[in-house]
Amino acid sequence: MGEFTVNKEKVLQALSTVEEPDLKKDLVTLGMIQDVEIGVNQVRFTVVLTTPACPLKELIRRNCVAAIHDLISPDIEVIINLTANVTTSRQTGPLLPGVKNVIAVASGKGGVGKSTVTANLAMALHRSGAKVGIIDADIFGPSIPVMFGVEHMQPTITPKNGKNLINPIRQYGIKLMSIGFLTPPESAVVWRGPMASQALKQFFADTDWGDLDYLLIDLPPGTSDIHITLVQTVPVAGAVIVTTPQKVALADAIKGLSMFRQPQINVPVLGVVENMAWFTPEELPDHQYHIFGKGGGQLLADKFDVPLLGQVPLVQGIREAGDDGRPAFMNQNEMVNDAFRNASEALARQVAIRNAEKVKTQVVEMDS
Ligand SMILES: Nc1ncnc2c1ncn2[C@@H]1O[C@H](COP(=O)(O)OP(=O)(O)OP(=O)(O)O)[C@@H](O)[C@H]1O
């Protein structure tokens, strides 16, 4: 075994050569290294990632080990504890004080699977260790309560600091609020725009969300008053656009995406999720049938210069799981789980990159 001396400074010096691949700065400058401890032929430290769903964690771990071995000694045992502290670019304010990132999930056309994608992205983020909530703001078809099997539940109310606060429904580790909870499922209520906007504001102002890393907002399809209420009420970290590869869906997705880019709205588009990208029968898992066309999600992403966050196949089990009130991510289907995990990691990564730009998100001021 070679001769070497190791101390905290040397370890930090070595780690300051390791770059966070997305944020393009070194781990020490980014404040991601903590709790350095020196033992006999051993160093231990913690790397605080920007999200527990970080797809680069193994690469970062390997690069840290390599830096210590190359710059200090190959004989040192390197023990790394990976943790995460999800970043935010929100200023703390009276609304949603413990919520780090509000993410809008939107689509141009209805029925492309926006709620299904929202539910499963939430489950995948939760599985990675993040604290997640969903607001179902889809006035035309609030399907989140059904997808989580809580359509007959009613949120309770607790007085807190002189205010009556609504407790979100908690299911499978996710906190949920839905326009659907405000009316019995049997009685079809036609929500007028102003009523729905008022309900959404209540979900922000009068709901006890506690601490959340990601609050996903399942928006109605197309563009509506609800979209405007959202961006005017809380700072939105970014939007995810869900589309199918079909031409008619893409045409509408372009309109949906363009709305977020309008100068007076100006919400960053974090990327595109292509749902129903191909059909795969359960008994032929290696077969892909492009029944709605091929490559449409990538085309949309390229057109607007945003990432394609993921492609989700059309699988009978995804529909069945939604109807059974347990998002498909909870079942052990590798193909389905990979699709949603990859998309959730890509989303978390875009949020971290966006937050590192340090431009605070602000509510949008508009003349009404
Ligand atoms: N990848 C998929 N594979 C199989 N079925 C799917 C998939 N994605 C969505 N579905 C099914 O398609 C239907 C529509 O999905 P969903 O309700 O998520 O769409 P949406 O875009 O939210 O609709 P809305 O217009 O109500 O907002 C549901 O029955 C759902 O289970």
From TrEMBL:
Gene Ontology BP annotations: iron-sulfur cluster assembly
Keywords: ATP-binding, Hydrolase, Iron, Iron-sulfur, Metal-binding, Nucleotide-binding
Keyword Lyase: no
Domain MIP18 family-like residues, every copy: 8-71
One Pfam family in the UniProt entry: ParA
Recorded GO MF terms: 4 iron, 4 sulfur cluster binding; ATP binding; ATP hydrolysis activity; ATP-dependent FeS chaperone activity; metal ion binding
Protein residues bound to ATP: G108, K109, G110, G111, V112, G113, K114, S115
CDD domains in alphabetical order: Mrp_NBP35 (cd02037)
SUPFAM superfamilies xref list: Fe-S cluster assembly (FSCA) domain-like, P-loop containing nucleoside triphosphate hydrolases
Family stated for the protein in its record: Belongs to the Mrp/NBP35 ATP-binding proteins family. In the C-terminal section; belongs to the Mrp/NBP35 ATP-binding proteins family.
HAMAP family: Mrp_NBP35 (MF_02040)
Function field: Binds and transfers iron-sulfur (Fe-S) clusters to target apoproteins. Can hydrolyze ATP.
The protein's assembly and partners: Homodimer.
Protein known as: Iron-sulfur cluster carrier protein
UniProt organism field: Dyadobacter helix
